[in-house]
Amino acid sequence: MKRASLLLLLLVLISCTPKKENTTETTPENNALQDTVKVTEEVVSEENTATEVNDTPATEISNEDYYICYTDDDVPTRVIWIRFTKEGKALQVKYKGQKEAINVVFVSEEVSEGGAYPTIESNYDEIYNGTKNGTYTLTHSGAWDYVTYTREKDKKQFHFTIDHNADPYGKEPCF
């Protein structure tokens, strides 16, 4: 009798467990990422010409855009913010002390399982005055976000980490 009751209880628990959906889309609000596989997308620059000039529609701010502020791992006074769409795609980067933000163009994204949280690595080209100036690699895992910027002219890299004290995923930039 105890076995039958235990088996019935187990069946009820299993049937009440929500089903997971397979998806490749990730947003910062969706940190409990479902089963995913490697995703790679490439952008054809001709299809996204609006992001190649700094005073284009990419500078229009939506009510659903959000910002993440990052601090340089080696130079704590070097601070940047990145503006994202509600879908989690980066649009612009601005360094503290600069007058204007710089547009970025999505290149690819890779999602890898393993560890405590899935890791999403997105790559963007920095476009300034119509020219590629560098590449940003944005890494998101759990509550942590990292940026590696590779300057085009000399391939020097700069590493940044999210500033959790600067209203992460906030509606306003930190500076």
Query: What oligomeric state best describes the polypeptide chains here?
Result: single chain
**How large is the count of helical segments?**
1
Mean pLDDT: 77
Radius of gyration: 20 Å
- Strand-and-helix sequence, N→C? HEEEEEEEE
Beta content comes to 35-45%
Largest sheet: 8 strands, antiparallel, barrel
Give me the count of strands: 8
Helix and strand composition category: mainly beta
Low-confidence stretches: 4-57
Shape: globular
N-to-C terminal Cα separation, in Å?
Answer: 67 Å
Describe the structure.
By secondary structure, this protein is mainly β. Helix content is 9%, strand content 37%. An 8-stranded antiparallel barrel has the order 1-2-3-4-5-6-7-8. Mean pLDDT is 77; it is low at 4-57.
List keywords for this structure.
1 helix; 9% helix; 175 residues
Quick structural overview:
The chain has 175 residues and is mainly beta.
Write the layout of secondary structure elements.
Blueprint: H1 2-16, E1 66-72, E2 79-84, E3 90-95, E4 102-112, E5 119-128, E6 131-141, E7 144-151, E8 157-162
